[in-house]
Specification:
Elements (H helix, E strand, L loop, with lengths): L1 H19 L3 E11 L3 E15 L4 E16 L12 E14 L4 E13 L8 E12 L4 E10 L6 E11 L4 E7 L1 E6 L5 E20 L5 E18 L4 E18 L5 E4 L5 E11 L1
Antiparallel strand pairs: 1-2, 1-15, 2-3, 3-4, 4-5, 5-6, 6-7, 7-8, 8-9, 9-10, 10-11, 11-12, 12-13, 13-14, 13-15
Length: about 280
């Protein structure tokens, strides 16, 4: 009960802050990722706001809720068909400090709860990142840092590195790890992007699965290459369409020591997504 009250308080605090700020956005995204024997359907709601609290410091807060539904091919995974619904709630708080016109430091702390149906204190974990951006010239900047992230399924520390290059006033190129992007805007309303992203997540199970050496979590990860299109349909409203393919997709059961105890062997699969965003 205390945990549910805490989560509710996070939502209330975020909504209160949104009302107090001029710069905020709200979005809902839906995507489907079918594979040969398992289909993954995800719904994601995001609320974000940011404020420049001084000439050098900007804070950003992003609250996100994700629901994942997993549909198994009938008869293929009889022992695991109850593993069909998962939830994640996380609140990312970022501080950006401008040391100079060319050097910035970004620090993010992301408390998160990842659970199946019943929320418990053990479902809580903390992610985060630290990154320095250096502007090399008028068109090029480099980002270097480290993060505790779930892009490989379980939370792990990884290095981050990217190079951002403004090709011209319509195109920009981001090359790095874990995200790369080539974007192009033919006018102020349309943005086309080609992306490549390492991404993943994990969820605690309500009960240990004794038949697979006491599995306590499910993890999933993949490398996603996609073509995205965003359209500014009105002053504050945007729609986003996404189509792509998941490579090296993994869906596993692991124990408390993060040892893999079962591999669903999902294989590759395509991805389709649609979203709507209000931005002010």
């Amino acid at each position: 009960m205390k945990i549910r009250l805490l989560i509710g308080s996070l939502f209330l605090i975020s909504f209160y802050n949104v009302k107090a700020q001029e710069n905020f956005s709200a979005a809902i995204n839906v995507k489907t990722e079918p594979t040969a024997k398992i289909d993954f359907n995800e719904t994601n709601a995001v609320l974000s706001f940011h404020k420049k609290i001084s000439t050098a410091i900007t804070v950003t807060n992003t609250l996100a809720y994700t629901n994942l539904k997993v549909n198994y091919e009938l008869g293929s995974f009889k022992s695991f068909e109850s593993l069909d619904n998962f939830n994640r709630l996380q609140n990312k708080f970022e501080i950006t400090h401008d040391f100079s016109s060319t050097t910035k430091l970004n620090v993010a702390v992301t408390p998160t709860v990842n659970f199946q149906q019943n929320l418990d204190a053990s479902d809580f974990s903390v992610l985060g990142s630290l990154e320095i951006r250096q502007q090399l010239n008028s068109k090029t900047s480099i980002n270097v840092g480290a993060a505790r992230t779930t892009i490989f399924g379980s939370p792990k520390f990884i290095p981050t590195l990217s190079l951002l290059y403004a090709v011209n006033d319509k195109s920009a190129l981001l090359i790095g790890f874990p995200d790369s992007r080539l974007s192009y805007s033919n006018n102020i309303r349309n943005t086309f992007s080609l992306t490549n992203t390492f991404n993943g997540s994990f969820y605690h199970l309500d009960h240990l699965i004794a038949t697979t050496d006491n599995a306590s979590k499910v993890t999933m990860s993949q490398i996603t290459s996609a073509l995205e299109y965003e359209r500014n349909v009105d002053k504050n409203w945007f729609i986003n369409l996404k189509a792509g393919y998941d490579f090296n997709k993994k869906y596993n059961l692991i124990d408390d020591d993060n040892h893999k105890v079962y591999d669903f062997n999902t294989g590759k699969g395509y991805i389709l997504g649609i979203g709507i965003k209000y931005k002010q």
